[in-house]
Amino acid sequence: MMLFMSNCRPALLISALLLTGSAAWAQRSLPAKASLDQCYRVLGKDSVGFFYSEDYLLTPPGCATIRRHTRLDSAGRFMGYVRDYRMTNNLLLLQGSYREGRKEGVFETYHATGELAARGRYMAGRQVGDWAYWYPSGKPRQILSFRNGQDPLIQQFWEESGQQLVKDGNGTWYRREIGMELRGAVVQGIPDGRWQLRRLSDQSLVARETFMKGHFRSGILIEQMESYRDESRLDLADWDTYSKAEAYELGPPCPAAE
Q1: What is the pTM assigned to this prediction?
Q2: Signal peptide: which range, if any (predicted)?
Q3: Count of beta carbons in the 10 Å neighbourhood of residue 7
Q4: pLDDT tens, 194-220?
Q5: Distance between CA atoms of residues 18 and 249, nearest Å
Q6: How many domains, the chain?
Q7: CATH number, position 93
Q8: Is 37 within a domain?
Q9: Residues 6 or more apart from 213 whose CB is under 8 A from it?
Q10: Is residue 9 part of a domain?
């Protein structure tokens, strides 16, 4: 899913995992990186194909899972229409456009099955207006309203069974990703009361935050026994993994053949 950073603050779903493994990671040596010239192919006079891992790190095509077709401007930034495809079956994963290196206009993302996952607009690289989301089955999932860089309003939300849990901004909302569930009450489109992040495998509590009419009050990371009152670390929007492509970050080389 989309690994998403909102307003340059870490998404709790990522940071909770990283914190538990940071000590062990510090003891390891940094992995080797692929070279940039291994990770793209010139497709025509003004088009390029880039190859990525599942989390949009540049990688050689032999071990890539995503292929991007795009054009570049004189500064090396994405320009015009982009299309991302899954390498295994050539199904479309994303389509949209860039201007001056920033996402602009309508973007659509697709599930691995080829079903539409999300549709909405960007303006100067930011999500704006209403975004609609669907389950892999094709059933509606939610409608979020993005407001000038702020966290989105949750307007409507349905379970995959079709039961509507949030109607006109009021109800209960949840999101499940990478083995975790974020859940809480919504009043007039914004979080209210106690929100919880749990592991799905054993329902253990990872983090808890308290809101009052959308205003963050306090939070705690359970396993780290760390409390905070500066700002929320929860992220309501789906993870926007594809934006990592704009950083041209190199991933590891393909593993050697046995």
Answers
A1: 0.82
A2: 1-26
A3: 9
A4: 999 999 999 999 999 999 988 899 999
A5: 19
A6: 1
A7: 2.20.110
A8: yes
A9: 187, 188, 190, 192
A10: no
> CB within 8 A of 11, min separation 6: which ones?
3, 4, 5, 233, 234, 235, 239
Per 3-state DSSP, what percentage of the chain is helix, strand, and coil (rounded to 5)? Answer: 10, 50, 40
Contact 115, 137 (CB under 8 A): yes
**Structure token digits, residue 147:** 């407001």
Strand partners, 227: 220
Q: In 3D, which of 110, 107, 128 has the Cα closest to residue 243? A: 107
Tokens of 89: 């079956």
Are the beta carbons of 208 and 197 closer than 8 angstroms?
yes
Q: Which residues of 243-255 are buried (b: 16+ CB within 10 A; e: fewer)?
A: bbbeebebbebee
Please indicate, yes or no, if residue 84 is contained in any of the structural domains: yes
- pLDDT for 88-136, tens place per residue? 999 999 999 999 999 999 999 999 889 999 999 999 999 999 999 999 9
Alpha helix segments (H runs only) across the chain: 12-26
- Provide the residue range defining the domain that includes 68: 32-138
- Residue 206 domain-assigned? no
Tracing tokens 């009052």 back to the chain, one arrives at 212
Exposure of 213 by Cβ count < 10 A (0-12 exposed, 13-18 middle, 19+ buried)?
A: exposed
